[in-house]
Amino acid sequence: MKKSLMNRRDFIRNSAVAGAATALRPKIHSATGPVAIASRNGLGAVARAVEEINAGADALDAVITGVNLVEEDPNDRTVGYGGLPNADGVVELDSAVMHGPTGRAGAVASLQGIKYPSKVARLVLQRTDHVLLVAKGAQDFARMHGFSIENLLTGEAREIWVRWRETLSNRDDYLPPHGPDDVDLGQAMKRSYEHWGTIHCSAIDLQGNISSVTTTSGLAFKIPGRVGDSPIIGAGLYCDNEVGAAGSTGRGEANLENCSSFLIVERMRMGDSPQDACLYACERIAQNTHLARLQNQAGEPAFNVSFYALNKAGEVAGARIRGAAQMSVADKNGARHIDMAYLYA
Length: 345
Ligand code: GLY
Prior knowledge:
Helix content: 25-40%
Shape: globular
Structural class: alpha+beta
Largest sheet: 8 strands, mixed
Bound molecules: glycine
CATH superfamily: (Glycosyl)asparaginase
CATH architecture: 4-Layer Sandwich
Distance between the termini: 21 Å
Strand content: 15-25%
CATH topology: Glutamine Phosphoribosylpyrophosphate, subunit 1, domain 1
CATH class: Alpha Beta
């Protein structure tokens, strides 16, 4: 049977028969009161978001304060300051926010020189009649609101970029450090860093209102001007105050082509649990991945996308296309990592 013709139950069953999806569904976590979820790199962010909410903050401000910790962390290579640069060695950031109670969104893309793109995205939401500002326009807007322009390329990120540049090809004149006997100096650099990173964070505050943020430096060494899923409402995040919220990390191109965060929230509106809704989005991407260059030998997506979701009742879960992983959650029991569901082992 062609994968695209299978219904969802057949797809999961067939995947399991083929040896994939062996640990599909970890226990669902649910919380009463404030709760925040994030990607694995957001353990500090969810703890901070819940702290802010308990002190009376709106969920939007709480999640932004939470992810600011990661945006300013020089050791996270996938977000904000210290993020890996584009192919020209320039850090370009994408971020979006969405505020459940007003249904408003704000976003920035290809933003250079501003450490906290999520704060600029919030200003787009609060102080413009637009949703998305890009590149120089986004930077000028941030400067107008008092942000200073900084060099976001840390010494370590620059060295990784130089190593990438020098080992990209043996048909150019850049050379990595080498000895007199070395011959092939153009082998692709061993990927000892996350090629796709990002942080997503969503939360429910004391009023039961939901808000979300996603922020990233995007794909490492991307073509300058490339924009991923993170700043695109409906892809990198989506939030509906009556239903729940969802967000993503991973291969942005696959998510952009499937509008997955909107899909997840709509599936929850139809009655899916957050976990089922996230798995549904993973299946949709798998079904829509037709190109051999994006598939492994079994015809499965050879890349990963991860989704994180919570519903109005405080149930939280995440799912990804490939392999076991964890996400972050914080509630009245504190901050911790929990297991995510996945489609293929
Ligand atoms: N998901 C982040 C990106 O693709 O840029």
